[in-house]
Specification:
By secondary structure, this protein is α+β, with helices and mostly antiparallel strands. 42% of the residues lie in helices and 20% in strands. The protein is built from nine helices and 14 strands. A seven-stranded antiparallel sheet has the order 2-6-7-1-5-4-3. Strands 10-9-8-11-12 form a five-stranded mixed sheet, with helices on both faces. Strands 13-14 form a two-stranded antiparallel ribbon. Helix 1 crosses helix 4, helix 5 runs antiparallel to helix 7 and helix 6 crosses helix 8. The longest helix has 35 residues. 22% of the residues are buried. The model has no long low-confidence stretch (mean pLDDT 90). The structure holds zinc ion (ZN). The site of zinc ion (ZN) has 8 residues, from loops.
Length: 360
């Protein structure tokens, strides 16, 4: 199985210049390949890749970038194309792939080779990147398997990170199923489970979201393209990062709790398109908890040899979990009262029980 860790990089000034230069050259290559792709009726991934050496002849500065890192841009282009046609097949309106402007390119990738993590035994380890150099890195997790890929990412806040993907060989032993739980995901970021536990977004996350919204309003009043606005932009990006980090922390702890304490976990299988979309940045980060809980629980369960069971979401809020009778309710009705068997419970608790019943 593959695990990806995100480690912070601490480049010095010269290294940072090289990182920026690599980003920029990768962006140029991506754009050149896209232009080339557009000028052909039909060109394969392999054929397009063979153009890269010609690009290097025309533009020798490209030799400053590790060759496989440039090749990866061809791979990136084709996976973007694939994603686009997938969306098209699903019936979305899609345009063409766009050229990447300066602010829109933030990652370059070393795949299979050209990198090495050197253990120093001190607080900082060294990430060696071919053609760039030895960058101090904080590895807060140990790497046990073979490293497959290193993606270097520049954040809006100005920080640099390396996403290190390792391949771990590990036998997964299927666990016997004794404890089963159903989980209902509510509209207001609440999780309700069939053991009558209710969990909401922690207060400190809401606080951070509020601060983010405040910064966003303040920044919008600053003059465009002024250095003052740029300072606010960085401040905003840092706050954004803080919120995302505490959300991830919360979600990992929550999903870990369920995977450690239960053998089978049932959740509604709601398609992403049915989820609420919120245009406010701070709100949308809180809302995106929804899909991520399922994602984290399902992969953690798989690694632990436990079961994640998606159940059909239709009717789970309307059906009585005790007798199966339909009890229609409006969105604002928070109480479930069955006229058939007299079962009364909070609406989300009844849903969680129904989800559990469905998976049995
Ligand atoms: Zn009933």
């Amino acid at each position: 199985m593959q695990i990806t860790h995100k480690f912070r990089l601490y480049p010095n000034r010269q290294q940072e210049e090289k990182l920026f230069e690599t980003l920029n050259l990768c962006r140029q290559t991506y754009n050149n390949l896209l232009a080339e792709f557009d000028s052909w009726d039909n060109i394969s991934k392999y054929e397009l890749q063979s153009i890269i050496p010609n690009l290097k002849i025309c533009n020798p500065i490209l030799k400053k970038v590790y060759s496989k890192t440039l090749q990866y841009e061809n791979h990136r282009l084709f996976s973007n194309l694939k994603a686009l046609s997938k969306r098209k097949k699903k019936g979305y309106k899609v345009g063409r792939l766009r050229f990447k402007g300066k602010g829109w390119f933030k990652t370059f990738t070393y795949n299979q080779s050209g990198f090495k993590i050197i253990q120093t035994g001190k607080r900082f380890q060294i990430l060696h990147l071919s053609k760039i150099g030895d960058i101090p890195v904080r590895c807060h997790r140990s790497i046990k398997g073979k490293i497959k890929q290193v993606a270097v990412k520049h954040m809006q806040s100005g920080k640099w990170f390396a996403s290190v993907t390792e391949e771990r060989k590990q036998e997964i032993k299927q666990q016997p199923i004794n404890k089963i739980i159903g989980i209902d995901l509510g509209l207001t970021n609440t999780v309700y489970d069939s053991d009558d536990n209710k969990i909401t977004n922690p207060r400190h996350m809401k606080k951070k979201a509020k601060k983010l919204a405040h910064l966003q309003r303040r920044m919008s009043k600053k003059k465009k393209r002024s250095s003052n606005r740029n300072r606010w932009r960085i401040r905003l990006a840092r706050q954004y990062e803080k919120l995302v980090n505490s959300r991830e922390d919360f979600l990992h702890k929550l999903s870990r709790y369920y995977v450690n304490n239960y053998d089978a976990i049932a959740m509604e299988d709601i398609p992403i398109s049915r989820m609420v979309h919120n245009h406010k940045l701070s709100k949308s980060i809180l809302d995106s908890c929804w899909g991520k809980i399922r994602q984290y629980i399902s992969y953690k369960a798989e690694w632990a040899g436990k079961l994640y069971i998606p159940v059909d979401y239709k009717g789970t809020t309307q059906r009585c979990s005790q007798c199966g009778k339909l009890v229609p309710k409006e969105l604002w009705e928070r109480e479930h009262k069955c006229s058939n068997c007299c079962f009364t419970a909070p609406r989300d608790y009844n849903s969680a029980l129904e989800i559990k019943r469905l998976c049995l």
